[in-house]
Amino acid sequence: MHLVYPAVLAALLFCTGLYGVLARRNAILVLMSVELMLNAVNLNLVAFDVWLRDKLHAGQALTLFVIAIAAAEIGIGLAIVLLVYRARGTADVDRLRDLREDAPAEAREDAPVEAEKKAEAAA
Amino acid sequence: MTTTTAAVLVPLLPFLGAVATLLTGRRAPGFVRPLAVLPTLAAAALAVLVACRQGGGQPLDAARRLTPTGSVPIDLALHLDGFAVLVAVLVTVVASCVQLYSTAYLREDPRYPSYAALVSLFTAAMLLVVYSGDLMVLLVGWEVMGVCSYFLVGHYWETEAARSASLKAFLVTKLGDVPFLFGLFLLASDAGTFRITGVLHTVATGSLSHPTLTALLLLAGVAGKSAQFPLHTWLPDAMAGPTPVSALIHAATMVAAGVYFTARLLPVFTASTAALLVLAVMAAVTMLGSALAALAQDDIKRVLAYSTVGQLGYMTGALAVGDRGAAVFHLLTHGAFKALLFLGAGVVIHAAGTNSLAAMARMRGLARRVPDACWTMTVALLALAAIPPFSGFFSKEAVLGAAEHAARGEAPGIPGAAGWTVLLAGLVTALLTAAYCARLWLMCFCGKDPDAAQHGRESAAMTGVLWVLLIPTIALGLAAWQLPDWFDGRSLAPTLPTSLLSTGCALAGGLVVYGAWRRTQALAARVPLGAVAADPEAAPAVSEEEAIATHLAAYGSIAGAQDPADPGRLLLGPLHRHAATGFHLDALYAALFVRPVGAAARLVRFLDREVVETYVRGAGTAPGWLGAAVRRAQTGNVQTYLSVLFAGSVVLAVAAVLVASGA
C-alpha cells in the first residue's frame, strides 16, 4: 500500500480533530476530538514505521506509549469534566470563562470568589 | 622598654582606652571613668619618659613598611625630635586634665561613655599626628580628629546651635583638607616618599617642582585645622560643645595640629617666598580681626575662642618669619594657659549659671564663690596678655623677637615684609589682647549688683585640675633658656626692645579698658540683664547646656549682647556691632557659598523630581499600558487561546519552510 493513503487519512483525521477541539462547545466532544488528533498521529507513526522498515520499530513502540498516555489523559480529562459539570451544572466550554480578564476593579473583587470556586471544583 | 616601644604606646593607649570604653560603656558604666582617665594618664607618663630619653638630641626614626602601594610606599614611621616629644607631653597632660575634669563636669550625662571614648580617640589621633614620621599616617590622625571634633562639638545635639556648629566645624575643616591632600600628593610625587625625613631631604636639595603651589595647598589645610583667616569661622561656633571639649580642641589637639604640621614641614614653606608672605598676611589678619572680635563677644567662651584664633595667629606669624622654635614654644605655653582658661570658664559658667559676660557683670561675689577659678584664671589671663613674668610673655616675646629679626633682614631667605607685617600686627594685637583680657576679668569677677543664685560647691576634680595647669602657666616661660637645645638652637630669650614695646602695649590696653570700665559702671545698674540657669543639684554641664540654648533668646544674638555697660562697646564704638558678628564673615560666606550651593541643590532637586523621575515614571507607566492592552486578549475562552496558538504555529511553520527553502 502506498504511503499516501494512510498519510492523507491521518491528515484528515487530524484536521477533523483540530476542528473539533477549536469549535465544539461540549467539553466531552472536545476530549473526543483530542483523541482523534492523537490517533491521527498514531496512524502516521505506524505507517512511517512500516515505510522506513525500522529494525527497532520505534514508531510502533511510540504508538503504544501514546495509547497508554491517551488512556490516562482521557481518564483525568473526563474526571475534570465530571467535576466541572457537578459544580456548574454545565460542560459548555464557552461558558467556563473564570480566567478571563475583567475590568480591574471587578477582577479584584472576584478574585477570592474564584479561588473558592476552584477549591470547590477541586473537591 | 625601648624609647620606640614607649613612643608607640603613647598614641596606642588612649586608642585602646577609647575602643574599650565604646565596647563596655553601656554594660559596665563603672569602668568608664577609669578607662577614660587611666590610659591617658599612662600615655602622659610615657610621653614624659620618651621626652626624657630623647632629650632634644638627634631625631629618633623608626619605620615599618605598612603597605607597598606600587608607587609611593606608606610606612608606619615614628619621627621623634624635640618638637614631637614636647608637643606630645603637652597633648597628653592637657588631655589627662580634661578627662579628669570631665568626670566631674559631665558626671550625670547619659552620653558620658561615648563622650569619654571620643575624647580618648581625639587624643590618640593628635598623638598620631605628633609622632608620625609618614605624611599618610599623619593624615589619618588629622582626619580622625576632624570626625571626633564633629561628634564632640555636637555633644549637646538637642540644641540647634550645637548641631549646626558641629556640621560647620566638620565642613569648614574639610574644605581645607581637600587642598591639603593634594598638597601631600604633590610633595610625595616630588619626593617619591611620604616619609617626612625624605620630604625634607628633597626640599633641602631644592628639587621641589612647584614649591609655591605645594605650600599654598598645604596652607589651606593648616588654615582650616588651625582656624586661621579665612577658615577660622568654625572655631567660635564650636563653643556650643561642652567646655572640656573646647579646652581640648583649643589647647592641645586639633588647632595645634595645623601649627605643628607647618613647623614640621617648615622648609617646604620657606622654599617659597610667596607662601611665607601669604602666611604672614594670613597671620596678621587673623590676629587683628580676632582680637577685635574678642573685645565684642558676650559669651565668655567665645571671647576665649577668638583669643585662641589670635594666639594661633602669633604662631603662624612665627612660622612666617621662619622661626618654628618660637611657634612651638608659644604653642606649648598657650596650650597650658588656654586649657586653664577654658576649664576655669567652665567652673565660672556653672557658678554663675550663665555664659554671658553681661549677666556676670551684674553678679556680686562671683570671685569669692569660685576662688580657685578666680585666682588661676587671673594668672592665666595675665599670661595670655603677655605680662611678665608669666609664660605667655616669654613665648610671645620669642615670636616678636623672631619677627623683629626677620624685619631687620637678619634672617636668611625670609622676606623683610613678612617680618614687618608680623611685628606690627603682633604689637597691635598685644594691646588688643590685654584689652579683652582685662575686659573679661573685670566683667567676670568684679560684678556689682545682686548676689547670684547660689550653686553647689565645685568638685575637687574640677578645681584641682586648674591648680595643676597653673604650674606650667607660671613657670613654662623659664623654659625659654632651655628649649633652644630641644629645637633648632635659635635663642628664644626675650630681647629688650620688643619686650618693652609689647609690655607697654599690653599695659596700655589693660589700662584703657579699666578706664572705660570705670566710666560704664554707672550704666550697669540702670540696665538689668541676665538669664540665669540655676541647677544647683545637677552636673555643671547641665547649666552650660541651658546657658547655650537660652543665649539667643535672652540677648538676641549668639555672640553679642545689648549691654551699654560693656567697656568693649564703649571702646569699639561703631565697630562693635560688626566685631560682635565676627566682621560679618559668616554672612559673607552665606552669600558667597551657602546660598549658591542651596540654589544648586534646589536646581538638582528640581531636575531630579521633574526630569529624571519623569523618565522613571514613564518606564513604569509604558509597560502598564502595554499590560492593559495584552490583558484584553485574556477572554477566558480556552478555544480562543488554542486557535491563536494554532495560527501562530502555522505562521511559524510557514516561515520555517520559507527560510529552509531559501525563498
TrEMBL record, chain A:
<keyword id="KW-0472">Membrane</keyword>
<keyword id="KW-1003">Cell membrane</keyword>
<keyword id="KW-0560">Oxidoreductase</keyword>
<comment type="subunit">
    <text>NDH-1 is composed of 14 different subunits. Subunits NuoA, H, J, K, L, M, N constitute the membrane sector of the complex.</text>
</comment>
<keyword id="KW-1278">Translocase</keyword>
<feature type="region of interest" description="Disordered">
    <location>
        <begin position="104"/>
        <end position="123"/>
    </location>
</feature>
<keyword id="KW-0874">Quinone</keyword>
<feature type="transmembrane region" description="Helical">
    <location>
        <begin position="61"/>
        <end position="85"/>
    </location>
</feature>
<dbReference type="InterPro" id="IPR039428">
    <property type="entry name" value="NUOK/Mnh_C1-like"/>
</dbReference>
<comment type="function">
    <text>NDH-1 shuttles electrons from NADH, via FMN and iron-sulfur (Fe-S) centers, to quinones in the respiratory chain. The immediate electron acceptor for the enzyme in this species is believed to be a menaquinone. Couples the redox reaction to proton translocation (for every two electrons transferred, four hydrogen ions are translocated across the cytoplasmic membrane), and thus conserves the redox energy in a proton gradient.</text>
</comment>
<keyword id="KW-1133">Transmembrane helix</keyword>
<dbReference type="GO" id="GO:0050136">
    <property type="term" value="F:NADH dehydrogenase (quinone) (non-electrogenic) activity"/>
</dbReference>
<keyword id="KW-0813">Transport</keyword>
<keyword id="KW-0520">NAD</keyword>
<protein>
    <recommendedName>
        <fullName>NADH-quinone oxidoreductase subunit K</fullName>
        <ecNumber>7.1.1.-</ecNumber>
    </recommendedName>
</protein>
<dbReference type="InterPro" id="IPR001133">
    <property type="entry name" value="NADH_UbQ_OxRdtase_chain4L/K"/>
</dbReference>
<dbReference type="Pfam" id="PF00420">
    <property type="entry name" value="Oxidored_q2"/>
</dbReference>
<comment type="similarity">
    <text>Belongs to the complex I subunit 4L family.</text>
</comment>
<keyword id="KW-0812">Transmembrane</keyword>
Automatic annotation (TrEMBL), chain B:
<keyword id="KW-0812">Transmembrane</keyword>
<feature type="transmembrane region" description="Helical">
    <location>
        <begin position="245"/>
        <end position="263"/>
    </location>
</feature>
<feature type="transmembrane region" description="Helical">
    <location>
        <begin position="414"/>
        <end position="438"/>
    </location>
</feature>
<feature type="transmembrane region" description="Helical">
    <location>
        <begin position="303"/>
        <end position="321"/>
    </location>
</feature>
<feature type="transmembrane region" description="Helical">
    <location>
        <begin position="112"/>
        <end position="131"/>
    </location>
</feature>
<feature type="transmembrane region" description="Helical">
    <location>
        <begin position="641"/>
        <end position="660"/>
    </location>
</feature>
<keyword id="KW-0560">Oxidoreductase</keyword>
<dbReference type="Pfam" id="PF00361">
    <property type="entry name" value="Proton_antipo_M"/>
</dbReference>
<dbReference type="InterPro" id="IPR018393">
    <property type="entry name" value="NADHpl_OxRdtase_5_subgr"/>
</dbReference>
<feature type="transmembrane region" description="Helical">
    <location>
        <begin position="76"/>
        <end position="100"/>
    </location>
</feature>
<feature type="transmembrane region" description="Helical">
    <location>
        <begin position="459"/>
        <end position="480"/>
    </location>
</feature>
<feature type="domain" description="NADH:quinone oxidoreductase/Mrp antiporter transmembrane">
    <location>
        <begin position="132"/>
        <end position="403"/>
    </location>
</feature>
<keyword id="KW-1133">Transmembrane helix</keyword>
<feature type="transmembrane region" description="Helical">
    <location>
        <begin position="137"/>
        <end position="157"/>
    </location>
</feature>
<feature type="transmembrane region" description="Helical">
    <location>
        <begin position="500"/>
        <end position="517"/>
    </location>
</feature>
<dbReference type="InterPro" id="IPR001750">
    <property type="entry name" value="ND/Mrp_TM"/>
</dbReference>
<dbReference type="GO" id="GO:0016491">
    <property type="term" value="F:oxidoreductase activity"/>
</dbReference>
<dbReference type="InterPro" id="IPR003945">
    <property type="entry name" value="NU5C-like"/>
</dbReference>
<dbReference type="InterPro" id="IPR001516">
    <property type="entry name" value="Proton_antipo_N"/>
</dbReference>
<feature type="transmembrane region" description="Helical">
    <location>
        <begin position="373"/>
        <end position="394"/>
    </location>
</feature>
<dbReference type="Pfam" id="PF00662">
    <property type="entry name" value="Proton_antipo_N"/>
</dbReference>
<feature type="transmembrane region" description="Helical">
    <location>
        <begin position="341"/>
        <end position="361"/>
    </location>
</feature>
